Amino acid sequence: KYDMLPTFDEVNDPYMVDHIEAKTQEQLEEELGYNKKYPDYTDEYNKHRQHVVFGENLQPFIAQNSFVAPCATLVGMVEVWHEASIWYRVTIKAENKLVRIGYMTNIQDGTVIEEVPEELGPDHDGSVMIGNQVTVGHGCYLRACTIEDNCLIGMGSILNTGSYVEHGSILGAHSVLRPFQRIPHGQVWVGNPARYLRDVSDEELTRIEKGAEKYSQASHEHCDATYLQPMELYREAEEKGYCVGHVESEGVIANLKSIRDKLRSKFSSITKE
Q1: Which of 49, 94, 163, 260 is found 20 to 30 A from 119 (Cα to Cα)?
Q2: Cβ of 205: how many Cβ atoms within 10 Å?
Q3: Taking a C-beta distance cutoff of 8 angstroms, is the pair 219, 106 a contact?
Q4: CA-CA distances (angstroms) from residue 241 to 237, 244, 255?
Q5: How far apart are the C-alpha atoms of 171 and 164, rounded to whole Å?
Q6: 128 neighbors 142 (Cβ within 8 angstroms)
Q7: Cα distance between residue 175 and residue 185, in whole Å
Q8: Could you tell me which residues come within 8 angstroms of residue 106 by beta carbon, excluding any fewer than 6 positions away?
Q9: Model-level pTM?
Q10: How do the pLDDT tens digits run along the chain, 273 residues long?
């Protein structure tokens, strides 16, 4: 009964090896393509754009001392006021109307904010208005809504089209405001759909203000930590004395080219002499 068993061929057996080749972690990563080192001028190109411009007026306006995380995306007419912070994986879309992020307001990780193209009423054009010292928690969705100053929006909450949160109010985590639902001044609302729970205490108002200040301070630290060094091409250009920068205006580019041509002709004449 053993005649039908396959014979063992040690020479042609694909699983037989003469020796085991040991490799270091660095060699394995290099063989698999990880940690590949590129020569100068071949920096990896990332198609992600932090600021997306839609025409001349539909472009983000970012205050100099605000913070926008490198992986956040601001599309169209987005205003980020002083000391405000837009954290990681936040998406703000304003292709048609305005989205305004007020002073010392923080929009936390994974939140999505968008306006609507149609007007919602005589006093609402579909924009998103977020006031000063507002905290919007992680993973929220805000659509054509208004949030006044010193408010707290709990993580995972949804503010539907036309909803309104008045000054000094709190919306609990994972709560949902229905379209055109309004939270009066100084109240706490929770649930789906959100309902009145109680009034906001003085201690909670103080915590909202201090929380906004802490996020503002933390944003400066993250801004320094995420600063990217210039590419090798830029470094070499600066070392050789070239002016390095980015200019979009065609008139400015034309003036720079004319100045360059004049300097070239001047230097060539000096060289000939």
Answers
A1: 49
A2: 17
A3: yes
A4: 6, 9, 19
A5: 11
A6: yes
A7: 17
A8: 84, 85, 87, 134, 135, 136, 212, 215, 216, 219
A9: 0.69
A10: 455 555 555 555 555 545 556 666 667 666 666 555 555 444 455 667 888 887 777 889 999 899 999 999 999 999 999 999 999 999 999 999 999 999 999 999 999 999 999 999 898 999 999 999 999 999 999 999 999 999 999 999 999 999 999 999 999 999 999 999 999 999 999 999 999 999 999 999 999 999 999 999 999 999 888 766 666 666 666 677 666 666 666 777 777 778 878 877 877 776 666
The span from the first CA to the last CA of the chain, in angstroms, equals: 103
CA distances from 227 to 20, 67, 86, 190, 234 (A): 45, 11, 15, 39, 15
Tokens linked to 76: 């169209």
Lookup: tokens for 47: 């198609």
Task: Identify the residue whose tokens are 């390095």.
Answer: 244
**Residue 178 in tokens:** 């229905």
Type of residue found at 112: V
